[in-house]
Design the sequence.
């Protein structure tokens, strides 16, 4: 089985619609794909309706968190999307995205970059607006060559010249909320140091003690040494190890199935989840 547990669609900052995503996942030879848009489950229904035969969909979301001043992302799988407390928290995070993006546009204007809110809103479309959309605007204007080049201290990285904070969930609270909604939690790309400061291993140990299920080890932003270190940490803490592409369509260079999750780990994730179940494809539109 080929299992990719971290993908994005136009429901957040990907460039493929949910329907396009699942069709491409099947064409890439995947058996299981997870749709984990940022703080949103809006793409799930479309993905399920278009799910090809032979492909299973894991519903989820990537939750925006912050601990001790450091941003981090928490992958949440197979939770009940209508559970009131978790839904309210996701809406709180999403509602803060527009003023935050407007603030980044204003800071870029102060730096002499002629980006406009209308440009960013056009790029975001119906998705949850975020830094990748602002970064894409910088690419369109020729300020940086790629979206990744916008995530530096010069521009949009944490603490960068045009960075604006947003509401982010305490990860310990995120674990509690997801668990209460019957879901499973995995710390996304914990060693992605090029994105900014990373969470110390001592905090990951505290998260594990609070119920964190796993960490994403095999990821494009982790070098070989980082993967070895994270595997050792996971073993010490009794955490599951996942791998995934973090696919965003044409917005990033990663491809579907570039990194995958072991079937036994996937089986354990589905065993632990009680809020929702993987959806097998029966032949969508």
Sequence:
């Amino acid at each position: 089985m080929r299992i990719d547990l971290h993908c994005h669609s136009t429901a957040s900052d990907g460039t493929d619609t949910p329907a396009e995503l699942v069709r491409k996942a099947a064409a890439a030879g995947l058996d299981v794909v997870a749709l984990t848009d940022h703080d949103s489950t809006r793409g799930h229904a479309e993905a399920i309706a278009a799910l090809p035969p032979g492909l299973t969909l894991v519903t989820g979301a990537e939750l925006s968190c912050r601990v001790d001043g450091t941003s981090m992302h928490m992958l949440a799988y197979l939770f009940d999307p209508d559970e009131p407390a978790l839904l309210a928290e996701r809406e709180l995070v999403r509602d803060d995205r527009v003023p935050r993006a407007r603030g980044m546009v204003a800071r870029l204007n102060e730096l002499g970059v002629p980006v406009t809110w209308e440009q960013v809103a056009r790029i975001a479309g119906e998705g949850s607006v975020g830094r990748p959309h602002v970064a894409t605007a910088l690419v369109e204007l020729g300020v940086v060559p790629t979206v990744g080049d916008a995530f530096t201290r010069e521009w949009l990285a944490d603490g960068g010249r045009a960075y604006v904070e947003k509401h982010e969930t305490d990860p310990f609270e995120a674990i509690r909320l997801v668990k209460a909604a019957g879901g499973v939690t995995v710390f996304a790309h914990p060693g992605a140091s090029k994105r900014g400061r990373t969470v110390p291993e001592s905090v990951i140990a505290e998260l594990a003690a609070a119920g964190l299920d796993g960490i994403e080890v095999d990821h494009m932003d982790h070098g070989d040494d980082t993967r070895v270190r994270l595997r050792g940490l996971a073993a010490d803490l009794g955490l599951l190890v996942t791998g995934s592409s973090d696919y965003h369509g044409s917005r990033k260079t990663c491809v579907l199935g570039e990194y995958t999750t072991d079937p036994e780990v996937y089986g354990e994730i589905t065993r632990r989840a009680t809020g929702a179940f993987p959806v097998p494809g029966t032949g969508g539109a």
Notes: The first helix runs from residue 18 to 27. The beta strands are 3-7, 32-35, 56-67, 70-77, 184-187, 214-218, 240-243, 279-280.
